[in-house]
Amino acid sequence: MHETELHDLADDADYEASLQQSLVTVARSDSDKKSWSSESDGAEVVYSKENVTIHPSQYASERISGRLRLIKQGSSLFMTWIPYKGQSSNARLSERDRNLYTIRAVPFTDIRSIRRHTPTLGWQYIIVVLASGLAFPPLYFYNGGVREFLATIKQHAFLVRSAEDANVFLVNDFEDPLQKTLSSLELPRAVLAANTSISISPSISNENPERIDAGTSEGTLSTSQYIGRQRQKFNDPARDLSIQVLEKFSLVTKFARETTSQIFRESHSNNGFNANDWRNRNQFSLDNSVSEESQKVSDGNIVTPDPLEFDKLTLVWGKPRQPPLGSEEWSTFLDSEGRIMDSKALRKRIFYGGVEHTLRKEAWSLLLGYHAYDSTYAEREYLASTKKLEYETIKQQWQSISPEQAKRFTKFRERKGLIEKDVVRTDRTLSFYDGDDNPNVNLLRDILLTYSFYNFDLGYCQGMSDLLSPILFVMEDESESFWCFVALMERLGPNFDRDQNGMHSQLFALSKLVEILDSPLHNYFNQNDCLNYFFCFRWVLIQFKREFEYEKTMRLWEVLWTHYLSEHLHLYVCVAILKRYRNKIMGEKMDFDTLLKFINELSGSIDLDSILRDAEALCICAGENGAACIPPGTPPSLPIDNGLLYSQHDDVL
User: What is the pLDDT of residues 486-541, one digit of tens each?
Assistant: First the structure.
C-alpha cells in the first residue's frame, strides 16, 4: 500500500471552509502524491454530529468540543473529529494542545474496535482503538447519537459485537482478521497509526521542517526517521517480531499511553476487581506509611523500601530448586502399566526442578493434557495412532486446495503467507531449525497451517510459531506436536483473540498483584503512566520465550504447566522480575519509554532459578488474596464455556 498523506484541516483559517476539505480522497500514486481535495472523487459525509467533546483533564474549562464525521470515499470509510475554531478555553490549553487531539481522516481499516460506555449518570461516550493497540481519547456525545454512529458504521463496514464484552464492537474483521490482534504487529501500519492518533503530519517533505521536528520532540518519530530505522531492520532478516512488539510500544506518546491506560482500567471496572474494591476486601496487612513515602520517588532520589522485605520473604517461602527429574526417579511415579500413581506429587517434583530433556516428550504430553495421567502405555499408544489419522485428515483439507481455488480463498492465502514469513525467522539459530530447506521449518509451517484449519475462528496470529517451536523440538513428531500445541492453545489461545481481552485480563491481574505485593512500586507506575503494564506484554504473550535461553525457556514452561501452586504462576514471575529491579526502576525515575527499553534489554540476563524461587514465595504470600484479584477465565485458565470460543454476532446494536 502506498503511503497516505493527510491535509491538516485543523490549521485552516476558516473552519467552515475546511468542511469542503474533508470531502476528499487519499492519493496513492508514487509519482504524484496529493493532499485531500474536494474534486469529484465521490466522497460523501454519511454521518455528522455536533458537540462531540474530548475531556483532556478533569477541568470543565479545558473540554474541547468539535464535529464528528463519517466520510465514505468509494468503498472506504473514514472518521474525522475536528475541534471548533475560536472556542474559549483555559489559558493552559494552547492551540498546539488543541491540534494534538484532532483526529484526521482515519480509515476504518486502521481501526480494531469501538468500545461504548453508557454510565448511569453523565454522557455516553466511545473509545476508538486502533489496530496498533493505541486509542483515541474518549469522545463524549453531549447530544446523544452513539447508536446512530454505530448503525452508520454497520451500513458501510463490517461491525460485530465482541463475544467477550457486549459493549465492544469489532471493526472490519472480515477484511484483515489477523491485524485485529495485538500479536499481529506490522510496524509500518502501527507507527503511522500512532502518528495519526496524535495528529502529527506523516508528510516527509521539507516544506514544514518545524512541524516534523516538533512531532519528534513530543516523543514520536517523524516518518523520515522511521523509514531510516526500517531500512536498518530490513537488513537484519533474523530480527524477531516479538522484539518489534516492544519497539512499537516505545513509540507511544504520553497522550496515547494515558488514553490506553484509561481503556485498560475502564474495561475491567465492571468485573468487581477495581482498586477500591480490592482495598476494602484486602486483608493483606502492609504499612500504611508506605504509600505516602513512595510519593517521594518522583520528586527525589529516595526509593521506598520493599514493604515485604523481599529477600527475607524468599528465604522463608521460596524453596531451593532441585536437579531435573531423571529417568530412575521418573519410573517411581509409574505403575507397571504406565499410569501416573500420584499426579500431584509428580507435578510438585517437576515444579521444583523440571525434567531431563530425554523425558520431556513423555512428560510434556501429560503436563499439556494430550495424554491423561491415569492412561496406560497401551492407551497412550492407541490414542497417538488415532490422533495421527485425525491430524492427517485436517491437514489434507488445506493440502487439497488447488492454485485456482487458492486465488478465490483470500483468508487462506493471507494466513499461509503470514505463516511462511514467520517460520523462516523462528529460532533459526538452533541447529534443529538452522539451514536452508530445513525439514523442521517445513513441519512448523505444516502444523501451523493445519491448526489454522482446525481452529478456523482463531486461525493464525504472529507469536504462535514461538509457542510451537519448543514443542516440535521436544516431541520430534508432527502429529503429536500438533495435538500438544492444540492443548496449549486451549489455554493460551485468548492471548491472540481479536479483542485482546485475554491479554488485558492478564495485565490487569498483574497490576493488582503488584498493588498488593509492592504498593510503592504500584504507586510509582501510577505516577509515571505505566499502569497499563504494556512493558510486560511480551513476557505474557509468548510466556517469556525471549527472556531466557532455549533450554531455560523449556524448563520454565514445564514448571508453569504443572499448575502446582497456581495456574497463573507466570504473573507472579512477572512480579518477581519487577521487584528484583524495583530499586533501579524507581531510583532512576524511569518513565514508560525508558522502562520499556530497560525491560527489553533484560533479555538473557535474568536468573531463572532465583526468579522461580521468588515467584513461589510471592504466590504463597499473596495466598487467597492474590487469587481473588485474577478474574475467572484469565489465561492460562481454561476459558469459561459459552458455547462458542470465538463466536461472532451480527446484531451489534
Answer: 999 999 999 998 778 889 999 999 999 999 999 999 999 999 989 889 999 999 99
Q: Can you tell me whether residue 477 is helix, strand or coil?
A: coil
Pairing of strands 111-117, 159-161: unpaired
What tens digit of pLDDT does each residue of 303-342 get?
777 666 555 565 556 788 999 999 999 999 999 999 999 9
Kindly give the residue spans of alpha helices, DSSP state H, lying in 101-222: 146-156, 187-197, 209-217
Which grid cell sits at 526?
501510577
Residue 571's contacts (CB-CB under 8 Å, 6 or more residues apart) are 506, 509, 510, 513, 540, 630
* Cβ neighbours, 10 Å, residue 401: 16
Nearest to 415 by CA among 438, 395, 398: 398
φ and ψ at residue 382, rounded to 5 degrees: -65, -45
Q: CA-to-CA distance for 301 and 480, rounded, in angstroms? A: 54
Q: What is the pTM of this model?
A: 0.59
Mutual orientation of helices 519-527 and 501-517 as an angle, nearest 10°? 120
Sheet with strand 139-141: strands edge to edge: 103-107, 76-83, 64-73, 43-54, 139-141, 124-130, 111-117, 168-171, 159-161
Phi-psi region of 463 (alpha: psi -120 to 50; beta: other; left: phi over 0): left
The C-alpha cell at 615 is: 515467584
